[in-house]
Amino acid sequence: MRNCASLASGIYNSSRMDRELTAEELERYRRQMIHPGFTAEHQARLARSRVVLAGVGGLGGAIAYGLAGAGVGHIAIVHSGGLTESNLNRQTLMKETAVGHSRAHTAAERLNEFNRFVQVSAHDAPVTEATLLPLARGADMIIDARHNFPERRTLNRVAVMTGKPLLYAAMDGLSAQMALFRPAETGCFECLYPDSPPDWDPFGFPVFGAVAHTIGALAAMEGVKFLSGYGALSDTLTVMDMNDYGIRRFRLQPLAGCPVCGKGSV
Ligand SMILES: [Zn+2]
236 CA to middle of ligand 1, Å? Predict the structure, then answer.
């Protein structure tokens, strides 16, 4: 799945798919490559990896920063709309002068400044199947950093349809959670959350930047592990309480008859 040069379209620059790491890149990533067992091949896999990141707010921005810093080679950002004043308490990829401008493009510019070895594409478009499918087919992972259930379900459907893992992260006030769905092993988002909270207001829940960044960093590490092939992958829903710093983990499992990932579904 990771060597998908044959799937590359105009979305991704195929000329860089199988390239070797340069001396500059080896120096850039030296401090993570001295970690015991994390080899040049793991790093090269990151450089070849392609992810679709839906949502580049406080949470998605932290994920993007973690992945770009680690050297994930291709990041496609999907986020519709412009930056507002009230976004700025948490969105570290943004800046005051970008208020009113596209968040997807602002994030891509910042990430390109941060790491010149990473290709970032910005898609200022709604999170729909039409937007996601062309990107997802050539990707190694889809990342859900959105804040509402309809878009999360769209991302989950696209992940199952294209056979790609879905890295999920979410937060609400001082509570945050993260999971990496691989349907055959863990079930999918729909298995975990078959129902949506009827009173969920995607623009009305409290957000502290530090909570979004913490769970975003955790998700980024899970992404780095999956994409590089290094380390143990989580098969749980990890839930953090940032009030007392308690962490609980719940084993994920496929739901019999799941309408999304169950037998005979999409
Ligand atoms: Zn499912």
Answer: 14
